[in-house]
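Entry 12.
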Amino acid sequence: MAQPSATLGPFAVVVLDPGHGGQDSGAMCGGVLEKDLTLDVAHRVDRLLEAEGIATVMTRLGDTYVSLAERAAFANRVSDCIFISIHFNEDNRPVSTGVETYYAAHQITPGSFMTSWLPFLWRALSESPNLESQSLAGFIQEALVARTQALDRGTKAKQFFVIANVTSPAVLVEGGFLTNKEDNSRLTSEDYREQLAAAISDGILRYRDALKQRQSAVAVTAPGRR
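Predicted 3D structure (tokens):
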């Protein structure tokens, strides 16, 4: 895990959230478990971001169960971060395929909740989606499609608990369908999972660069600057 650096700019830490774990296996198909894939890809993203000098933390490091509320609360204790939850899809239609990235339709706002893991104490959802979460989702989705050539299912707003209850920019990545024969076959390949991880890392880096450009533009046009 890389150490935070004052030179990183817009955010200091990436919180990686490998979905499921422990007794919660997530989607299952042909002996492939979602919880194993999410952890594998998260570790790969962790390594790639560390190589870029970006600090990371993970909501789970091994095959352990962590509740959705605990994951969100963990992220909310990390200052100046973004949150990436990694998942894989399933569908009762075996033809369903592709990658998609979600942001919350309504997300809690900073200072709007008590310091507690109890979800019923978390109130004050935003009236519209968090624009930074939308932007982050767009960069990651674009990179996913470019790297994997998978079907582009786009970015979507949905009220997943784990991203709706995080105050920082937060997205949930669906990296393919375990119930699709072709997707499943690709996901069992280490090379393909490395491409997925590289895409997520690419999207994060491009989002960071866009934030830096915006901050520079604001600084240049700020009143009193010559």
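Annotation: The beta strands are 13-18, 28-29, 32-33, 55-58, 81-89, 99-103, 152-157, 170-177. The radius of gyration is 17 Å.
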